[in-house]
């Protein structure tokens, strides 16, 4: 059985990805940070549909905790699937938000750096011995880091996502001799719990954003999950080092 680790899968894009991969018969490790009950509910949903999953806690911004987390992944792989390797890694955990450039604090900047860039960078490095040759990695970046997608207040968030985009082809080049492919998606505005559940609290926001999307609506988590699943799959075996925008044509 193939196995996948999806960080930040207690909600949104990660949750939809976990459900999609499990539907394809892949054993999934999902992580949660604050929403343990939701993380465990995803496992229950997957098991009820005949799949297999494990939920682990992870704060991706706690760099000192990453070695302990990797040890937990190794144990979960062995105990649940009798496996010694992970086939797929989705670096998805993240939090949005921001502040105007003039008001950005060093603490907040450092938190964006740890959660959105340093955390996934070193988690992936520490997982290299566990990743199977021929496996695949997908990083969840953001359309906020693409040119012509500038929204005031997102400079730190976008910069860290841009850094994740930038390392994607470098990792792809350095891991190619092991047959490991590395790609990223850059989602546009997607209806998740990001931004303190902004879309649930202010439904009018979705209509406002939809006006700048060629296909006329904001994204749903499943829109991004489908592309992550494709990039991990054998159908994308000849695709590596790419950052793929998944936005329905944002600001085309
Ligand atoms: N939604 C959008 O419009 C959009 C657009 C572009 C890119 N993205 C990116 O897509 C990814 C997924 O976000 P989403 O939109 O699906 O948001 P979401 O619904 O808020 O889900 C975020 C997930 O990340 C986890 N998480 C948050 N902070 C974490 C931390 N410090 N350590 C580990 N896990 C953490 C959350 O866990 P808990 O809930 O358990 O705390 C949750 O599982 C993020 O990287 C985000 O930046 C989103």
Task: Using brief descriptors, characterize the structure shown.
binds NADP nicotinamide-adenine-dinucleotide phosphate, 7-stranded parallel sheet, 252 residues, globular, alpha/beta, Rossmann fold
Strand segment count: 7
How many alpha or pi helices? 8
Structural class per helix/strand content? alpha/beta
Beta-strand residue percentage:
15-25%
Cofactors, ions, other ligands: NADP nicotinamide-adenine-dinucleotide phosphate
CATH third-tier fold name = Rossmann fold
CATH homologous superfamily placement:
NAD(P)-binding Rossmann-like Domain
Based on the coordinates given, report the CATH architecture.
Answer: 3-Layer(aba) Sandwich
- Note the main sheet: 7 strands, parallel
The helical percent reads 40-55%
Spatial order of strands in the largest sheet: 3-2-1-4-5-6-7
In short:
By secondary structure, the chain is of the alpha/beta class. The protein contains eight helices and seven strands; from the N terminus they run E-H-E-H-E-H-E-H-E-H-E-H-H-H-E.
Topology overview:
Blueprint: E1 3-6, H1 12-23, E2 27-32, H2 36-48, E3 53-57, H3 66-81, E4 86-91, H4 106-127, E5 131-140, H5 155-175, E6 181-187, H6 194-201, H7 204-210, H8 221-232, E7 243-246
Parallel strand pairs: 1-2, 1-4, 2-3, 4-5, 5-6, 6-7
This protein binds NADP nicotinamide-adenine-dinucleotide phosphate.
NADP nicotinamide-adenine-dinucleotide phosphate is lined by residues 7-14, 32-35, 58-61, 92-96, 115, 140, 142, 187, 189-190, 192-194.
């Amino acid at each position: 059985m193939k196995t996948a680790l999806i960080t930040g899968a207690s909600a949104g894009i990660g949750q939809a990805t976990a459900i999609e991969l499990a539907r394809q018969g892949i054993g999934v490790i999902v992580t949660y940070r604050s929403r343990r009950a939701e993380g465990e509910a995803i496992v229950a949903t997957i098991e009820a549909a005949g799949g297999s999953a494990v939920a682990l806690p992870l704060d991706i911004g706690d760099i000192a905790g990453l070695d302990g987390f990797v040890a937990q992944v190794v144990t979960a792989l062995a105990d649940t699937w009798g496996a010694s390797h992970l086939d797929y890694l989705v670096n998805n955990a993240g939090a949005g938000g921001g502040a105007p450039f003039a008001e950005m604090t060093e603490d907040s900047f450092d938190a964006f750096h740890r959660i959105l860039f340093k955390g996934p960078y070193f988690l992936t490095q520490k997982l290299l011995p566990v990743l199977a040759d021929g496996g695949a990695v997908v990083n969840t970046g953001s359309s906020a880091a693409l040119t012509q997608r500038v929204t005031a207040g997102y400079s730190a968030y976008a910069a860290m996502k841009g850094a994740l985009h930038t390392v994607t082809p470098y990792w792809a080049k350095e891991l190619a001799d092991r047959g490991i492919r590395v790609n990223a998606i850059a989602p546009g505005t997607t209806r998740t719990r990001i931004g303190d559940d902004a879309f649930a609290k202010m439904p009018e926001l979705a209509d406002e954003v939809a006006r700048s999307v060629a296909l006329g609506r904001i994204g749903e988590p499943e829109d991004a999950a489908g592309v992550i699943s494709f990039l991990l799959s054998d159908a994308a075996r000849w695709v590596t080092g790419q950052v793929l925008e998944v936005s329905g044509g944002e600001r085309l």
